[in-house]
TrEMBL record:
Organism: Corymbia citriodora subsp. variegata
A family per Pfam: GST_N_3
Segments for region (Disordered): 1-21
Protein name: GST N-terminal domain-containing protein
Domain of life: Eukaryota
Length: 162
């Protein structure tokens, strides 16, 4: 029988009137947006590694984001961004690798060198896959995104254990 997942009390998103949390106070913070798929990637990584007590979520309301976020935290004003060891880092795929490499918990990549290399190749395809599928679903890109799914399906069949 599966163990029920722990329920995390999620803080409310901060909007333009919110005060800035202390910067570089020794707390590792993940600036995120609950509805942003790019930010969700890093949030999922945090949770898969069991880091809910080590990385504090700072959710932002992207439609009414605080001015201090761009001015003092992350000049690109995008999410996600991670505050750790006296610096701020952004870009979701880079952050996933960073969290995987710099924090305890199960690794997201296999130990087998051949599988790890293959995982890195798939990793580099993620953004292209998302772009094809997202624009297709919105009707802005190719009308058919089956080839992107076929590529992924074929790749995942390379090893018997997926």
């Amino acid at each position: 029988m599966a163990t029920p997942a722990a329920v995390e009390n999620l803080p409310p998103p901060l909007s333009s009137g919110a005060e800035q949390p202390p910067l570089f106070d020794g707390t590792t913070k993940l600036y995120t947006c609950y509805t942003c798929p790019f930010a969700q990637r890093v949030w999922i990584t945090r949770n898969c590694k069991g880091l809910q007590d080590k990385i504090k979520l700072i959710p932002l309301n992207l439609q009414d984001r605080p001015a201090w976020y761009k001015e003092k935290v992350y000049p690109l004003s995008k999410v996600p961004a991670l505050e750790h060891n006296g610096k701020i880092t952004g870009e979701s795929l880079d952050l996933i690798k960073y969290v995987d490499s710099n924090f305890e918990g199960p690794s997201l990549f296999p130990d087998d060198p051949e599988k790890r290399k293959f995982g890195e190749e798939l990793w580099s395809y993620v953004d292209e896959f998302m772009k094809i599928v997202y624009t297709s679903f919105k009707g802005e890109g190719p009308k058919e995104c089956g080839s992107a799914f076929d590529h992924l399906e074929s790749a995942l069949g390379k090893f018997e254990d997926g």
